[in-house]
Design a protein that fits this description.
It contains four helices and two strands. The protein has 85 residues and is α+β, with helices and mostly antiparallel strands. Strands 1-2 form a two-stranded parallel ribbon. The longest helix is centred in the N-terminal third of the chain and has 11 residues. It is globular, with a radius of gyration of 14 Å.
């Protein structure tokens, strides 16, 4: 699993700090394997986060994990994506 993180200005939090926090507060299978730090999340004109752009970026960073990231909630979508490959 991949996590996109936007830090507050001046924050010195590292990926190791985030991983330790997640291991302490989340189930083992929900702890992200990799953290990607961004200056800002992509948003549309209304201010909603553009998840499609984040998914594309995740696929570029880790193609083998992209299906998990794209299809966490929707079984139907997962089947369609696997058929496209």
């Amino acid at each position: 699993m991949l996590a996109f993180v936007v830090k507050k200005p001046g924050d010195e939090t590292s990926a190791q700090d985030l991983a330790a926090y997640c291991r302490k507060h989340l189930a083992k299978n929900k702890v992200p394997k990799k953290f990607v730090f961004l200056d800002d999340l992509p948003r549309n004109g209304v201010g909603k986060i553009l998840k499609t752009q984040l998914r594309k970026q995740a696929a570029d960073l880790q193609p083998d994990m992209a299906v998990v990231f794209l299809c966490k909630r929707c079984v139907r979508h997962r089947k369609r994506l696997l058929q496209e490959k």
